[in-house]
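[stage:ingest] chain + small molecule (retinal)
[stage:ingest] validated
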Amino acid sequence: MIVDAFEEVLKKTSLIPVPTSHPSHVAPIPSVLPTPIDAQFIGDSGKKTLWVVFVLMLIASAGFTALSWRVPLSKRLYHTITTMITIFAALSYFAMATGHGISVQKITIREQHDHVPDTFQEVHRQVFWARYVDWSLTTPLLILDLGLLAGMSGGHIFMAIVADLIMVLTGLFAALGEEGTPQKWGWYTIACIAYLFVVWHLALNGGANATAKGPKLRGFFVSIAAYTLILWTAYPIVWGLADGSRKIGVDGEVIAYAVLDVLAKGVFGAWLLITHANLRESDVELNGFWANGLNRDGAVRLGEDDGA
Ligand code: RET
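[stage:predict] done
[stage:export] tokens:
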């Protein structure tokens, strides 16, 4: 009886594959293992950095506003543009510090092996898309600052801004793009080409116009444009190391962009506004539009310039 039952069990279980030890040249088959997830999320130092930059951008905005009160409305164009830049940055840093404007990119990486089936590695990495919203507003304003300073034509400033918007938007598509297809690096290449257009407009056209405004203005434009060029060029490099190839973690990415943002917005703005105060050639009044509007014929003049 017991023997019969035993034989019955043996018959049934003989079809179930029982794990046995593998010959030494064949590795265990990894594809049956659950895919491991490499979660790349922000840590404490990244979160602190976001809050610190939020506060720094607020302080910069207040400082630039205070500087603008020292000059009449007609001379506040750079102040207004530059304050907008740090206000937008403060908003985007507040969003990211509180967990907004972030999505998680899921990437499956196929690892090929010689004798066994391919294995897969899942990576979940945070993408801070709030940055791209920030950049799509602030980089055109930075270009406007530089274009006005150099005395560039409206047409050239407009083209540089359009190229810049293409750069930021295609950069966002790259960050959210799929890997293993031409999508991600294709968008990145398009963004880099758009960036070259921005540099080309500002360097060639901006440089030529600045020269026409005299040696003092040219000297300042060349310095601040070179400073901008170096900082801006660091952004696609950080992108390549962070979202691109994930060689640096999320905290490293947040800190790198934080340093660049403070230099490219805060320090840039302070330098521009302080120098502008002592450089008459940099004045832009847009034929009175900034203080008085387009057509003031017959209108009651209400403005602090008139003491009203
Ligand atoms: C991306 C990725 C795609 C390729 C390129 C990029 C360039 C970004 C730049 C950003 C500048 C931001 C600034 C922000 C605020 O101050 C979008 C990273 C070329 C140049 C100056």
